Every structure is written in C-alpha cells, then in structure tokens.
Amino acid sequence: MTSAKLTLPNGTILTIEGTVEDVQKLVEFCGDSSAQSAISGKKTKSHNRKQSSQTLHQKDHITQIVNLIKDCKESDIIEKTIIDKGSEVNKVLLPLYIIHEYMGNTIALQSGEISKITKELGIPISQPNVSSSLSGAASRYVMGDRTRKARQVVKYKLNRRGLKYIKDIIGGKQKSE
Questions:
Q1: Which of 7, 124, 145, 151 could form a disulfide with 119 if both were Cys (CB 3.0 to 4.6 A apart)?
Q2: Domain boundaries, the chain
Q3: CA 166, 105, 161: angle at the middle one, nearest 5?
Q4: CATH hierarchy code of domain 55-171
Q5: What is the pLDDT of residue 28?
Q6: Distance of alpha carbon 20 from its chain centroid, rounded?
C-alpha cells in the first residue's frame, strides 16, 4: 500500500492511501507535483513554489485587511479610538475585528501577521509583543485554533466577548484598557 500527502491551497493536508496506481491517478487528477514526488521518491522544487505561493496568499490577506481598516465605514472612528489613542490590546484585536465584520470571519491570524498589519497601519507592534498581548491581556477576547506551545503556530479569531469589547470601544461605550 502506498500513501501520499496533498496540501490544498487553503492549507488542508490530505493523506491518501491505496495502491500505487490509485494514488497516482488521484494525484495526477489533483495536479500536485509535490505529492507525485513523494510517491516516486524524487525531490522536486515544487515545495519552494508552494511556500512562495502561500507567502503571496498571506500578503494578499494582509493587504486586504489593511485596506479594509483604512476604507471601511467605521474607519474614521477606528482611527480616533484605536489607531491614534487606543491601547496595545485594542490595536492587536483590530485586525481580528475587521476579519469578523467584513470578511465573514473566514481567516484566522498568527501573531506575526497581526504584527505586519499594525506595521502597515503605521502603529508597529513587534511580533513578540503581539504574542504576549494575545496570551495575556487579550486572551479573554480571542480563541486559538490550538493550545499554545513553544515553537508552534497558533491562529487566532475574535470570540463573542472580544467582538462586544471592540464594538463598545468603537461605539464609545467603553474606555480603552
């Protein structure tokens, strides 16, 4: 029995087991050359292409989020309440709020991606500080896709409490932390 791993564009990893012919047919159908190299045992450079396409995909999301923050219907209020004088926690939660409200909560962000977004907005927060905020003061407002462990990536989304908190900040009902 042969097995192959396929990584879909959205990051999902599929493991296929079966006869060599069946696995090859499925891999050819999907057009995944990295899985074909795993079957044949030959190394190809397609892995590097996949990584660079994932990086481009990540940059697209970052750019899209930054543009939404700058151009959304609440942009003036966001600028006054969060970007100009908000706390670090509010600035860290802002991209997660934008994803929830304007992108259908379809994307989860890593601390490094949040750091890049804040840098693009002109309010740079280093990745270690974002990570500390997400595990500290902002932890009650976010949910991770896994338990935090050393050297493992955690992707965060805004939870119900975090959504209410940010909406209250933007609406002026609550003072910044």
A1: 124
A2: 2-44, 55-171
A3: 35
A4: 1.10.10
A5: 72
A6: 35
